[in-house]
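PROTEIN DESIGN WORKSHEET
SECTION A - STRUCTURE
LENGTH: 450
TOKENS:
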């Protein structure tokens, strides 16, 4: 029987527009793109030129600091552009897809006969190794790291997140193969939710299954690491998105790189919230086209409203994105009497509005406004109420702002990633960009320890 960990701290933000368990046909797309920024910590070196022909699985760019880590093209076709920004930063590599897709054949493998080094080598050659992240620093890892454990969280509980069990249907065998492959490298912890019942999760082989029972962010892999095997200085754990586990399993079972994933199209501004099957790098316009009212001012998000990044229809589906969401922009809102109104339809953590009288099941429409400017940081304990980790969140944030590396280490910065502070940022009365602060702190610490 799976171990159960009950969490009391956290906050469930119930937003309108959850994706129904149905799939919509995807609008055809001609051009796809791989975005280096999806792989945090990677400095890309492009290995193709405009006009080159590539197969699905061929490398488009590599990690400049570790050239063995390649990043595979999601489609076969012709490289149409290497888009660069300021200081020639690589923004994306675009590929015009062939009508008939051609895959690089890496050969089928029985995982049971492979060693840990064999698994690493296969993932490196196929351009999938970069989908593995690590703690500390919350960056894409490299093959020279030796993890003491590998963590996979199949529980997605951020607002409007896609349900992994929907994606898992039909992919059970590939998921198990991916888990078994990772188990060759280190002990694998699989975190699931108390309401998840798929046998591929509950009865997964070669892993230690743990049920996390509690409100968001129980599904955050950082929270699960903190409760099962905390990271101390000098230690490394790997974290893998469950969809990437499916990618790994497909590679070993078919010998091909297939980056097709099931994505939730959700949010109050979506006409028909549902799921679509889309490749990594699919244009956002193809995913949401016709499903959003163009007459309204809408904030499109590549991800969920708390941890995703704002995007436009011209952007591309992220490598780790399990949902595309749409919420009101809010800059055209005209409220009579402003904050003094009772506000029966708006969400409040502190019960400042009367909406709390309608219970926890009420669904809210939240727009993209911050509703207030940045203020001085007050030690109120509000972070700790939504952060189910054995760290002092407010003191850690202050240490990062002050640049006190010793204090950061003492307060557990090696255990956290920016997404762990997403809810704290949501409830923060000081309106600080906590995820950005944590990311900058981790980047500085990484350079200092290099």
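SECTION B - SEQUENCE
RESIDUE ASSIGNMENT:
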């Amino acid at each position: 029987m799976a171990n159960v960990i009950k969490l009391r701290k956290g906050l469930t933000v119930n937003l309108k527009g959850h994706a129904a368990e149905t799939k919509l046909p995807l609008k055809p797309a001609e051009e796809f793109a791989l975005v280096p920024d999806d792989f945090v910590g990677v400095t890309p070196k492009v290995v193709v030129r405009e006009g080159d022909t590539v197969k699905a699985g061929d490398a488009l760019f590599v990690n400049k600091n570790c050239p063995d880590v390649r990043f595979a093209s999601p489609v076969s076709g012709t490289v149409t552009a290497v888009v660069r920004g300021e200081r020639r930063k690589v923004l994306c590599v675009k590929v015009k897809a062939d009508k008939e897709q051609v895959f690089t054949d890496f050969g089928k493998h029985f995982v049971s006969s492979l060693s840990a080094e064999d698994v690493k080598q296969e993932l490196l050659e196929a351009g999938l190794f970069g989908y593995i992240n690590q703690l500390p620093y919350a960056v894409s890892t490299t093959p020279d790291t030796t993890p003491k454990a590998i963590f996979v969280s199949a529980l997605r509980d951020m607002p409007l997140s896609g349900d992994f069990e929907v994606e898992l249907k039909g992919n059970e065998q590939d998921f198990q193969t991916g888990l078994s492959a990772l188990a060759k490298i280190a002990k694998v912890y699989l975190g699931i939710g108390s309401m998840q019942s798929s046998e591929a999760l509950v009865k997964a082989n070669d892993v230690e299954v743990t049920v996390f029972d509690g409100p968001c962010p129980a599904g955050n892999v950082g929270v699960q690491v903190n409760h099962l095997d905390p990271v101390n200085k000098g230690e490394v754990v790997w974290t893998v998105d469950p969809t990437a586990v499916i990618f790994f399993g497909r590679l070993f079972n078919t010998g091909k790189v297939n980056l097709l994933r099931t994505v939730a199209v959700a949010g109050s501004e979506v006409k028909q919230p549902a799921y679509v099957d889309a490749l990594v790098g699919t244009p956002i316009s193809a995913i949401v086209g016709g499903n959003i009212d163009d007459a309204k001012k809408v904030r499109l998000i590549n991800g969920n409203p708390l941890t995703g990044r704002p995007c436009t229809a011209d952007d591309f589906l992220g490598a780790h994105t399990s949902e595309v969401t749409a919420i009101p922009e809010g800059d055209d809102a005209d409220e009579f009497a402003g904050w003094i109104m009772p506000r029966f339809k708006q969400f409040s953590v502190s019960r400042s509005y009367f909406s709390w009288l309608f219970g926890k099941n009420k669904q809210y429409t939240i727009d993209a406004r911050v509703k207030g400017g940045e203020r001085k940081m007050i030690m109120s304990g509000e972070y700790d109420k939504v952060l189910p980790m054995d760290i002092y969140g407010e003191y850690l944030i202050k240490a990062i702002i002050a640049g006190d590396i010793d204090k950061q280490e003492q307060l557990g910065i090696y255990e956290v990633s920016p997404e762990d502070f997403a809810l704290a940022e949501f409830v923060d009365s000081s309106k600080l960009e906590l995820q950005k602060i944590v990311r900058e702190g981790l980047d500085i610490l990484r350079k200092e320890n290099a």
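SECTION C - NOTES
The chain has a mean pLDDT of 93.
The longest strand covers residues 77-84.
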